[in-house]
Amino acid sequence: xxxxxxxxxxxxxxxxxxxxxxxxxxxxxxxxxxxxxxxxxxxxxxxxxxxxxxxxxxxxxxxxxxxxxxxxxxxxxxxxxxxxxxxxxxxxxxxxxxxxxxxxxxxxxxxxxxxxxxxxxxxxxxxxxxxxxxxxxxxxxxxxxxxxxxxxxxxxxxxxxxxxxxxxxxxxxxxxxxxxxxxxxxxxxxxxxxxxxxxxxxxxxxxxxxxxxxxxxxxxxxxxxxxxxxxxxxxxxx
Length: 238
Description:
Elements: H1 8-15, E1 40-45, E2 51-53, E3 59-65, E4 72-80, E5 92-99, E6 112-117, E7 123-133, E8 139-145, E9 155-157, E10 167-170, H2 176-179, E11 187-188, E12 190-195, H3 198-201, H4 208-222
Antiparallel strand pairs: 1-12, 2-9, 3-8, 3-10, 4-7, 4-12, 5-6, 5-8, 9-11
């Protein structure tokens, strides 16, 4: 284990790549509410400053803390190097979210999992529409799964870009907690967007019954009035 992760200097000396050919950051529009505004908070950083890439098939992760009332994770973005043949057959990247208390409680059962096709060029991968409810103020860990791929993979930084979390790096998922102190003050290249849940927004979604009542009222308002005519005049005919 220690022969593969001997020191920060060796890791970043081995992983550091030129950034001249990097593609631009790809972002998706945020989801707007009925008033055309978005109540959202974004954490992390996608800067290219000090960016390098992990190599050698190591398990990579990032801890993060859910900010304030915006506790629904809607988007996760991360830097990754381009996929190249000859480094394994895995051509997608898995992502899982775990509770984090300084370590993973194994057997490690994720709260959420997804995957994305591995791009052939280095750049930022954006996972949108996640809608993962989390707990405000609690710390979680995102762990990436690159299967048997042993080439250059996830983007990392040798500076502290996100004080409320840190880089995780180890030879196996069960080692992430044990090796976490080694990587304190370092981060992956990531950005996470959180929005307020519908239950907290104060604007409840109309139910089917409410919609039916509303439709009935509209129909009633548009219907022509009907009057009951009463003739109190006596019939003059004998």
